[in-house]
Amino acid sequence: MAAPMALAGCGRALSPPPAPGTLADLTWPEIEAVARGSAVRFAMWSGDEARNRFFRETVRATLAREFSIQLELVPTADVADIVNQLLNEKSAGKAGQGSVDLVWINGENFRTTRQAGLLWGPFAHLLPNRQLYDEALCARDFGTPVDGMEAPWLKAQFVMAHDTARTPTPPAGFPELRAWMESHPGRFAYIAPPDFTGSVFLRHLLLDFGNYAPGFTQGFSEALYQEASLATFAWLRAVKPLLWRKGDTYPASPQELNRLFANREVDFTMNYSPMFASRAIERGEFPDTVRTFVFDSGTIGNYSFLAIPFNANNPAAAVVVANHLMAPEHLLPAMRVLGGPYPHRLDALTPAQRESVAALPRGVATLPDTILASRFLPEPDAAYLSRLEKDWRAEVLLR
Amino acid sequence: MPARHSASTIARGMAAALIAVLALLPLATLAVQSLARLWLWPALLPPAWSVRAWEDTFRISSGVLPALGNSLAIAMAVTLISLLIAMPAARTLALSPFRWKSLVFFLLFLPILAPPLAAVMGLHVVFLRLGLAGTVIGVVLVHLIPAIPYATLMLVGSFSRLETDLEAQARTLGATPMVVLRRVTLPLLAPGLAVAASFAFLISWSQYILTLLIGSGQVTTLPLALVAAQRSGDQSLAAAICLLFLAPTGLLFLLVGKWLRGE
Amino acid sequence: MRPALRPIVTLAPLAIVLLGLFGGGLLLGLLQSVGLFALTGSDAFTLSHYRALLNDREFLVSLALSVWVASLATAVSLLLGVTMATALHYGSFVGASRTRWQRTLLQVPLAMPHLSLALVVLHLLSPSGMLSRVAYALGLAPEPSAFPVLVQDAASVGILLAYVWKEAPFLAVVALTMLTRVSRDFDDAARTLGATRWQMWRRVHLPLVAPGLVSASLAVFAYVFGAYEVPLLLGRTYPAMLGVLAERRFSSVDLIDRPAALALALAMSLIAAMLVWVYLRLARQLVGERPVLF
Predict the structure, then answer these.
(1) pTM of this prediction?
(2) Closest CB from B38, B41, B217 relative to A81
(3) Domain enclosing residue B150, as ranges
C-alpha cells in the first residue's frame, strides 16, 4: 500500500502529476482508494440543459456516494475554449495545478491537444469498462489514432428531421435535396460551421462528392480534398439563393434551427443525436408527426471521448470518474433521461443489461438501431474538418 | 393658435407614449415569455402557462443562482473599488489646480472612447501567468477598466459643484478632518456618489465580453448564463433569467432616480 | 500632506488602473500583435498582421458595418432623445405633475443592460416573433418568411433598435438635466419678450444642451462601435461587427491566429479613437464652441 499512500497526497498542488505508469502498477481497487476524497473538475459542453441538470443532480450524488469523489462541472460553451486554456496553461508552466481534471472531447480538439502534448496518458487501458466498447470503431477519433490517450464514451450519429404533415417524403440524398430546394425556395437551412452540427453537414457533402473514398479516414490528402471540396463548394454556392434567408445568414446552432423548424420557417432540421426529435416531441416542442431520416448513402457517426489534461490535479480520481461514466450503471439511467444511441457492444453486456438497453425509450421519431448501424459512416480525418470550415467562410459565406 | 396648441399636445402625447413603450414593453414581453409554455408561431398568446422556467431559474443545480451570486459579488466589489479610487482623484481633478490635469482627463476618456476589448485581450496572457485568468479577482480587475473612468468623471462633476466654504467653516469651528468628511462632505456629495456608484455597478453588471475573455468560461455571471440559456433554445428560461438580470439595476436606478434627474 | 504632493497621492491609484491595466493591456497587445511576447513559437518582430488587415475583406466589410451601425444608432438616439426631452420640458410648463411619471419612466431603460434589450428585440422582431404574429393575425403575413427580415438583417435593424432603446432615453435624460438647470425666469423672460417656442428652442435651449449632448453621444458612438453581445445575438453570420470578429479570431483553436486577432482589436481601438476625433471636430463646427466633456 506504499504507492497509494504516496499518491494520496496528489489531491492538491503536488506537481507534476504522477506519470500514467505509476497508476499501472496498481490494481483497480487500489486506484479507487487513491481517488477517494478528491475533487474532479469535469469540463463538459454545456449546450444541453437537460444533460447539465442530470450531471449536477444525479451524477454528482452518485460519485459522492460511491467513490467519495466531488464532481465539479466546468461548463463550457465550446470545448475549443478548454483547449485554448490548456495551451495557455502549458506555456505559462502551470503543471499540476490545472483548472480541469477531465474533459469531454473529440475530433479536432483531440488532435490539437494530443499534438501539443496537452494530455495525460495513455490511460484508457487502465479502465475496466474500456472493454465494453468496440475496439475497431473507437481506435481512431476523426482519423487521429487514439492510442489510449482518451477513453471512448458516447456515440453520436447525424440525422435530419421532417414533419410528415408538411413534407411526406423526405429527400433520399443530396441530388434529391437540391431538387426539393428548387421547388421549395427558402425552406431549407443548414447551420453555420464551426458549430459541429453545421460542420458535419458539410463533411457529409464532402464525403458524397469524394465518393466515400476510404482515403478520407487515412490522414489528409490534398488531392482528395481539392477534388471533393471543389464540387462541395460549387454545390453550396449554387443552392445559396435557395436557402432560408437566401443564405444571407445561417442558424448558429441546432437549437436555433430547431426553433425555425418548430415555427415553420424551414421544413427540415438536423442533429447529431438520433433521438433529438423524439425528445422534442415529448417536450411538446415538435408536433408528433415529425420523424427523423437519413440519406440512402449513409450518415456520419462518431464516438466522443474522455481525456485527462497533462496538468490534472487528480489523475487517479479522473480515471475513476471516467470509468464510472463509461459504465452501464451510469449510461442506462443517463440514456433513459437524455436519450442517445447506446455506445457499448451488446455482446459485451450481461443478459440483464441487454434487456435494459432494449427497453430504453426510443420515441416515435427515432430510426431503428439496425438502420442507423447499417448506414454508419466513419468521420473523415480532422484535418478535412478544419480546412472545410476555413474554406467555407471564403468560398461560400463571403461570396 | 388653438390648432397649434393641439398639434403640440399631440406631439407631447406621442413622446409620452414612446417613453411608456420603451420602459414597459420589455418588462411585459419578458414576463409573458417567462410564464409561457410552448408558445409557437402564430399564437398571439401562450396556449398554456407554466412556472417551469422560474423553477429552473431558482433550482440550485441550474447554475443561475451561483451566477447571480458571482455577478453581485463582482459588481459590488467593482463599485466599492471604483468609488475608493475615484473619490480622491475626482476631488483633486475638480478642485486643485495642477500641471498635468488635461493629460489626466485625456487618459480618463480613452477607455470610454476606445473599446477596452483590445487592452483586455492584451492582458490575457499576463493574467494567465499570474493565475488571475478564470478567477473572480481577475474579472473584477478588468471590469475596473470601464467602470473607473465613468465613476471619476461623474464625481468630478459633483465635486466641482461642491461648496468647499462649508468644509472650511466646519474646520474653523474645530471639526476634525474625519468629522468634516462624515458630517459635511459626504452629505453634500451623497447624490453624486449614489449616481456614480449606480453607474459603476451597472457597468460591471452588464459586462459580457470582458468576463468571458478573462473568466475563461469558469467565472459564470448572470449575462453569461442568460446568453447560454438563449442559445440553448429555452426562451422561457432566458426570459426568466433576463428579468432576474434586470431587477437589481432597476431597483438601484429607482432609488437614485431623482438625483439622476438633477432634482 | 504637502500641497504639491496631494495630486500625486490622490491620483496614483487612478493612474495604476489607467496606465497599468488599460495602458499596459494595450502595450502588451501591441507587442503580441507584432510577433513579440508570443504564447507559442519564437519571438520575431513583424508587421505582417497589420499588412494582412489591409487586404482582409472580412475585416474591411466588418469595419464598414461597425461604422454604419454606430453612426446610425447615435443619430437616431440623438433625434429621439432630444424630441422626448423637449416634449417633457415644455410639457412641464403645462403641468409638472403630469410629466413626473414620464420622467421616472424615461429612466427605466437606463437601468436595462443592452443584452436584455437584445433579447426583447429578438422576441418582438424575429420572423416568428410577436410582430410577425400580429401581422399574421391581421392577414398580412401568412407565413413567417412573408414577414420582413428585421433581425440578423442586412441593414442591422435589430442591432440598431437594441441600442436606440436605451441610448435615446439616456440622451434624453442628459438633455433634460441640462434644461432643468436653466432658470425658469429665463424662459419666462424670453416668452415675455415675444419669443416663439421654436425661437426659444433654437436660440436658448439647443445651445445649452448641445455641448453635453455632443460628449454623451460620443460615448454612445464609441460604445456601439465596440459592441459585442448585441451583435452576437442579433447580427448576421457574415458580416459580423468588429468586436464579434475580433473575439472570434482571438478564441480560435489555432494560437497562431492570436497575434492577428490582437492586431485587429488594436486597429479597432485606433479607428474608434480617430472617428471620435472626427466627430468632435464636426461637432465643434456645428455647436460653435468647445464641447464640455461631462
Answers:
(1) 0.86
(2) B217
(3) 60-260
